[in-house]
Amino acid sequence: MIRRRVLGADHPETATSLNNLAGLYRAQGLYVEAAPMVMEAVEIMERVLGAEHPNTKITHENCEVLLAEMKEKGVAGPK
After folding, report:
1. How far is it, in rounded angstroms, from Cα 22 to Cα 16?
2. 13-69 pLDDT per residue, tens
3. Which residues, in sequence order, are CB contacts of 70 under 8 Å at separation 6+?
4. Contact of 38 with 78, CB cutoff 8 Å
């Protein structure tokens, strides 16, 4: 990913890109591909911005929605 290369793995914009790409994959039904991306985005946001930052909360909510949708559709989630 270009943002990871240019900004680094611990940059909030890198996490935003991961979150956005995960959302695109989710919309396409590519849940297995989306899950690790949004989970990594949450980890980065929490580490860099803190758990109470609005962007972290939004990313965390996106992760919860994805995992709930995976469970609802019977798709195996991450371990």
Report:
1. 10
2. 999 999 999 999 999 999 999 999 999 999 999 999 999 999 999 999 999 999 999
3. 31, 35, 76, 77
4. no
- Among 67, 16, 63, smallest CA distance to 44 is for 16
* Cβ–Cβ < 8 Å for 21, 37: yes
DSSP 8-state code for residue 25:
H
The per-residue DSSP string of 59-73 comes to HHHHHHHHHHHHHHH
Q: Contact at 8 Å (CB) between 70 and 35?
A: yes
> How far is Cα 38 from Cα 24, in angstroms, rounded to an integer?
11
Within a 10 A sphere around the Cβ of 47, how many other Cβ atoms? 13
Residue owning tokens 């935003």: 16
Tokens describing residue 10: 């611990």
The two tokens of residue 25 are 């994959």
